[in-house]
Amino acid sequence: MPRGMMGVILCLLIISGTGAWADTLPRQGKQVVLSAMDQWPPYTDTGMPGSGLFSEICTRAFSRRGYTVTIKFLPWKRALEMTRRGLFHGLIGASLTRDREKDFAYPRNYLFCATHFFTAGATPLTFSAMRDLCPAKVGVLQGSIWVKNVSAHKCFTVEPVPSYEQNIQKLIRGRIDLVIGTKAAFLFHLNRSFPQNAARVKAVYPPVKLDRIFTVFSRQTPGCQRLINEYDMGIEMLRSDGTYGDLLKKYGIEEPALTRPGPPG
Fold first, then answer.
1. If pLDDT is split at 50, 70 and 90, which confidence band does 29 have?
2. Which of 99, 149, 169, 244 has the most CB atoms around it within 10 Å of its CB?
3. pLDDT at 26
């Protein structure tokens, strides 16, 4: 087969494959299809009632505006890339980065997500510089940004593991000095899997990082800005009638409430 003809066929296959995914998006009516990370309790998790805090916030916010929401739970990288390509209207649970802004539009509302060190031993409960916690063996999640970030401090010995449970178990047994992780997710796993040891484990303050977490919308999907406006108006309705505060309590979240800072920057 001529080389030029092979190229044409390949392009048609790619376009056809993309269209098959795109056809999963509703073409009319007030319907929204979102993607989300499949296992990030208590934020997004199909094993939880309401599928997690972020999932329930999005569903209820759009519902107040008359929309039906479908959420597809996927591994994070897959959810990010498919939404970037416009195969979903939006993605739940994304932080703000410069490289993402060209592909995603951000609403006004976001949730703070605090990352802390945690200790079960003699480590100080407050610090002003990393050297105050040194030397220490630190448990981190494999594949997280903290493997690199914590390793940059030579006084720390980094021990990556696949799960929060493994980190917490090592911390309780004294095999590591600290664990770094998202506060709400860490406490969820601690209270669910190790309730008898929960009182021993303390968060170290201040937070190492305070992220703004958004539901972002793909610039590739039609009506992107309209969906953002509807989402923000729905959030305001949840705030005004107390539903948002009730959801925070339901999921045991202590971080600051959803805020309205104006356009992210």
1. low
2. 244
3. 53
Structure token digits, residue 76: 């994070």
* pTM confidence score: 0.74
Respond yes or no on whether the N-terminal peptide bond of residue 207 is cis (omega within 30° of 0): no
Tell me: cis bond preceding 206? Omega within 30 of 0 counts: yes
Rounded to the nearest 10°, the torsion over CA 124, 130, 132, 137 is 70
The pLDDT score that the predictor gives to residue 258 is 43
Q: 187: which 2 tokens? A: 């406490």
Residue matched to tokens 């990352």: 115
> Which pair of tokens denotes residue 59?
């569903």
Contact yes or no for 156/150 (Cβ under 8 A): yes
* d(C-alpha 98, C-alpha 8), whole Å: 35
Contact 149, 110 (CB under 8 A): no
Place of tokens 């209820």: 60
State both tokens at 98: 């410069």
